[in-house]
Amino acid sequence: MKFLDEAKVYIKSGDGGAGAVSFRREKFIEFGGPDGGDGGRGGDVWVEVVNGLNTLIDFRFQQHFKASIGQHGMGKTRTGAKGSDVVLKVPVGTQIFEEDNETLIIDLTKEGQRFRLAAGGNGGFGNAYFKSSTNQAPTHANPGLAGEEKTIWLRLKLIADAGLVGLPNAGKSTFLATVTRARPKIANYPFTTLHPNLGVATIDGREFILADIPGLIEGAHEGVGIGDRFLGHVERTRVLLHLVSAQEEKVGQAYKTVKAELNAYGGGLTDKREIVALSQIDVLDEKELKKKAKELEKACGRPPLLLSAAAHIGMTEALRALRDVIVDASEGGETALPDRSMPIEELEDGDDRL
Q1: Which residue ranges are tagged as binding site?
Q2: Residues 9 and 33 placed together within one structural domain of the fold
Q3: What is the model's pTM?
Q4: Annotated binding site for Mg(2+)
Q5: What confidence tens digit (pLDDT) does each residue in 142-168 have?
Q6: What are the CB-based long-range contacts (under 8 Å, 24+) for 248-254?
Q7: Is 82 a member of any domain?
């Protein structure tokens, strides 16, 4: 499943059904009077949060959603049936914006949450409604009211407890693959990760969700590279695990580069709790490790964790550090978020949907 975190769609609720003009016609009843029923309401357009989704890719292939019109009124004062609703199914963390892509309509953060985006038009009154003492046989009825139509934007910000940040090839995907069942693409070249990945980590009986986003490089907040595009997916996290590769020649500068990009992006990332770790330490000897750990400590202001996902060094300590911050931030609790560790797979090159 290809990853897509923004989509523009057109929605239209159903028009109301027209009222009926009808008169009672029965044997032995000379003046039956009007009996035209009202039209039915048009269908609504809803958005609903469902489990098992972590992309908006479905909206690449369908961008128009129209609810059904209400049924017209009928004789014998029968009201038309309501039009069928249309439901847009989205992942947890989806935000709905007006056409300007700035005015927030609703932020959907809970599974099962529903919101009506467009109400169906009311049905028109049948001629029975207009009967009065001065007009015993009205011959007119109302048409149904038009439904609402608008263009909206869907924007996905994945919900995770902890986010992994760092330069490209800092070991984020390897860390995620080691501590969860997620299977992100891993290779020895920059920007192996092209989209966010989620996984559920477990430590001492507690679960929490990790998000891995593409690596950041200098100038990311100005559109350089690809990491900036996905920073929104770690806005909702409670803590960031900032990985700095031990293979970097200047680990202190590597830390400052990513930190500067987080600060420039804003979105609450500047003040977010952060755990710093020197990763891939299995490539260093003891002397070089101490030197780089001290350099990183000077840059970030506290002793970094030392870990290697490939050699399974320091992983438990890192997970416990993340868990402690998450539990503390959630005010006593474990996260109530569903398991969304379903891996996001790339479409094959020959897929004709692209």
Answers
A1: 166-173, 191-195, 212-215, 279-282, 308-310
A2: yes
A3: 0.72
A4: 173, 193
A5: 999 999 999 999 998 877 899 999 888
A6: 248/167, 250/295, 251/278, 251/292, 251/295, 251/296, 251/299, 252/295, 252/296, 252/298, 252/299, 253/299, 254/166, 254/167, 254/170
A7: yes
